[in-house]
Amino acid sequence: MLEKLIQLHQANRVVQLSGPNGSGKSTLLEQFHIWLFGQGEKFGPYSQHEAVAENYSSRQLMALVSSDALSFAIGWGITASQLDTPLTQLSSGERTKVLVSMAIGSGGVVVLDEPFSHLDQQSRNHLRKHIENSPQRFVIANHEPGYLDDFPTLILAARS
């Protein structure tokens, strides 16, 4: 399955992984991270399950990435007070916006694992519009049917 994902990634700017919970989307993305690293490619990962340095503020974490991350977060509606709040005190949607902004600001392939899960409709639309119009390359695991149908999709079956 990794081979198919690599081929789709090399041929397309945006690739989506789709399948039910437990089908292996996150595991496949982890293997893809290892492949990207082995290729010497920069990438910005986001996973809804990943632990981060939550006692740090968004502003502190984004300073480690790039000013692009901060610009994207502000354009997404993250306020100055939210930027100075530790991640542990942000809502799940605000935390998702910060962490996805960091992945986008990485300057490499943006690898997103279920980025739409904690976002309201307006935020989902903002991210989708960025994915559609950005020159960046994206690999996105998504279980929201119909949301990214314009892009090539690798469908994973449920594990038995």
Describe the structure.
The chain has 160 residues and is of the alpha/beta class. It has helices at 2-11, 25-38, 58-63, 67-75, 80-83, 92-104, 121-133; strands at residues 14-18, 43-47, 109-113, 138-142, 153-155. A 5-stranded parallel β-sheet has the order 2-3-4-1-5, with helices on both faces. α4 packs across α6. The longest helix is centred in the N-terminal third of the chain and has 14 residues, at 25-38.
Reading side by side through the largest sheet, how are the strands ordered? 2-3-4-1-5
Order of helices and strands: HEHEHHHHEHEE
Could you give a short account of the major beta sheet? 5 strands, parallel
What is the average per-residue confidence, as pLDDT, rounded to a whole number?
Answer: 88
Q: Alpha-carbon distance between the termini?
A: 16 Å
Rg over CA atoms: 15 Å
- Helical amount among residues, as a percent range? 40-55%
Number of strands: 5
